[in-house]
Amino acid sequence: MPAATAPIAYSALGQRAQPPTIARLMALMLENPSLLSLAAGFTDTRTLPEPAVQAAVAALASRPSAPEHLQYGTNQGRPKLRALLAERLLAQETLATPADVATVRKNVFITNGSQQALYLAMQVLCEPGDIVLVDRPSYFVYLEMLAGLGVRALSLPVDAAGHVDGPALRELLADLRERGELPRLKAVYFVSYFSNPSARSLEEAEKTLIAEALTAAGAIVPVVEDAAYRELYYETQHAARSVLSLPAWDAFPKLYLSTLTKPFATGLKVGYGTSSDTGLMEKMLHVKGHHDFGTANYNQALLEEVIDQGGLDAQLARIRPVYLAKMRALHAALVAAGLPALGWRWAVPGGGLYLWLSAPAALDTGLDSAFCRACVEAGVLYVPGELCFGDDAPKSFVRLSFGVLGEADLAEAGRRFAAVAHRFA
Ligand SMILES: Cc1ncc(COP(=O)(O)O)c(C=O)c1O
Closest ligand 1 atom to the C-alpha of 270? Predict the structure, then answer.
């Protein structure tokens, strides 16, 4: 018999830590191999860029110099990769001054996926009990991170069409002030291009409304723009500029985050960001030094080689029509199975990996609902929309991801999902 060990006195963070929901959904998958998953936001495995990666591996191996790419790298990331990413980003922006351009270029940093950058930002900005304003709906892994840090998420108000509601935001900020809580507001966060989960993109006017309401309330807090899906449009990019370029955000510290996982290879797990505020970027890097003192140098070197050889654009050109076809396969299956006639609604996205379904209002699609259990029994898994709200979570939304399954499986998964919806109608 092993000796009983003493109970562990966990830190507040350790006590708050809960199993991530995504792990629970993946465990369900493993227990039930016939389950078709529309849950995890995985990318299309078949079109992952094996030849481009192999070519980059070969190119690195044939360099005559010592293999520095197999050595530790720097905390901020490889200078050439940072420069290449800065050029890509600056090509999409119109910053106000050459000094702003120089700052954004100098402050590009590389992380272990953009997920790490989000965590670093929240670690340096927030104490337990602080508040972050988040889009509605928002990225649920980020919301779980906030909960794990003891940080309160408050939704940016939206109107019936899902657009940012400026007057309601002003009211919310006035309420916070009245309750003495405005000083606890530490940041604002949104996913602004082909969002996870809603597939919506924010218009410039909406981003400006947020900045104006915060300015009017005197709450000049850091803004975190998560542009993970910016390059994953199907046919037409979303032309809105980011907060880096929009004049209404001039006075705010700005953090712009993106990633090479979704547009290139999820398995390399390389993300990046930049900031208008050198101090904020440096603080995040100090903490990154404590985490890992640098993202895998080899993965960065591979990506540097890939981007330099045009491989990222080639991969994007290859996968855009693939995701469009997958989205259409799932959409068509849901329509053909009669979901709209049951009162289900969704917008057809122009990019990203998700359909965001609104169920008839009375239907509970939550994680513990009979509907969710029936879907698992029918062999299809989804992300309950209730996970994607910072507060006041409605139970009648569903996120379907079409990233990983092939078109035939998507059609079958759509049929299974719709069959359950018919039973609950
Ligand atoms: C909106 C959003 N932000 C950030 C991430 C993190 O991605 P990664 O860490 O792979 O860059 C994801 C992943 O699904 C996401 O959907």
Answer: 11
Answer yes or no: is the C-beta of 208 below 6 A from any ligand 1 atom. Answer: no
Q: In this structure, are residues 369 and 387 in contact, taking their beta carbons and an 8 Å threshold?
A: no
Atom 2 in ligand 1: which residue has the minimum CA distance? 228
Ligand 1 pocket member 352 (CB < 6 A): no
The pTM (predicted TM-score) of the whole model is 0.97
Question: Is the Cβ atom of 114 under 6 angstroms away from ligand 1?
Answer: yes
What per-residue string of b and e applies to 349-384 under the rule 16 or more CB within 10 Å gives b? bbbbbbbbbbbeeebbbbeebebbeebbebbbbbbb
pLDDT tens, per residue, the chain with 425 residues: 566 789 999 999 999 998 888 777 777 777 888 899 999 888 999 999 999 999 999 999 999 999 999 999 999 999 999 999 999 999 999 999 999 999 999 999 999 999 999 999 999 999 999 999 999 999 999 999 999 999 999 999 999 999 999 999 999 999 999 999 999 999 999 999 999 999 999 999 999 999 999 999 999 999 999 999 999 999 999 999 999 999 999 999 999 999 999 999 999 999 999 999 999 999 999 999 999 999 999 999 999 999 999 999 999 999 999 999 999 999 999 999 999 999 999 999 999 999 999 999 889 999 999 999 999 999 999 999 999 999 999 999 999 999 999 999 999 999 999 999 999 99
Q: What residues form DSSP beta bridges with 381? A: 37
Q: Is the CB of 115 under 6 A from ligand 1?
A: yes
- Which domains are assigned to the chain? 17-46+320-423 (3.90.1150.10), 53-309 (3.40.640.10)
- Report the C-alpha gap between 146 and 189 in whole angstroms: 11
State whether the beta carbon of 41 lies less than 6 angstroms from ligand 1: yes
Check if 224 has its Cβ closer than 6 Å to any atom of ligand 1: no
Check pocket membership of 44 for ligand 1, CB cut-off 6 A. no
Task: Give the residue whose CA is nearest to atom 16 of ligand 1.
Answer: 196
Separation of 174 CA from ligand 1 center, angstroms? 32
First to last CA, the chain: 54
Burial of 346 (0-12, 13-18, 19+ CB in 10 A): buried
